[in-house]
Design brief:
By secondary structure, this protein is α+β, with helices and mostly antiparallel strands. It has two domains: about 45 residues; about 80 residues, Immunoglobulin-like (Sandwich), CATH 2.60.40. The chain has two helices and six strands, in the order ααββββββ. Strand 3 and strand 4 form a beta hairpin. The longest helix is centred in the first third of the chain and has 31 residues. The chain is elongated. Keywords: Membrane, Transmembrane, Transmembrane helix. It comes from Microcella daejeonensis.
Length: about 150
């Protein structure tokens, strides 16, 4: 008894040598349509990056305040067991108010005194100041910690 082969449910054999490659490309998402989609997503991402970067440059570079503030420590004097006198210099645009924090330090560089000083506006760009800072123990130095524009 001879039996004839049963009809197969498989797809017909390809007629050209590139047909297997085309089926593999379609199966794994490498069709021309997918390439266009990747290219479109890449272009949209690049445009979004450029827009965010340009907004950051405008916000950070152009919209900031133009006032510049420089502080220079000139030293300290009159260190007693309960206080120290701090000398410092502030350079800022004339007519600008400034607030400074002064600190006194002990031999272990621990803060033993602290004072906030508000400096009014003046006509000079650079001004020198001398302020006394009370301490909780004997200081070895006194200096401006930080100054800022209110």
């Amino acid at each position: 008894m001879t039996s004839s082969p049963a009809p197969s449910a498989a797809a017909p054999l390809p007629s050209s040598p590139s047909a297997p490659q085309a089926r593999l490309d379609a199966r794994y998402g490498r069709t021309p349509r997918d390439g266009r989609r990747v290219r479109t997503v890449s272009i949209v991402a690049a445009v979004a990056f450029v827009a965010v970067f340009a907004a950051w440059v405008v916000w950070g570079g152009l919209s900031g305040t133009n006032a510049s503030l420089e502080v220079r420590e000139l030293g300290f004097r009159d260190a007693t067991p309960t206080s120290v006198t701090v000398q410092w210099e502030v350079s800022v645009e004339p007519g600008t108010e400034v607030t400074c924090a002064l600190q006194a330090l002990n031999g272990s560089f621990g803060i033993v005194g602290w004072r906030i000083v508000e400096l009014g506006a003046a006509e000079e760009r650079t001004r020198q100041f001398t302020e006394s800072v009370r301490t909780s123990e004997e200081p070895v130095t006194g200096l401006p910690y930080r100054c800022w524009l209110p």
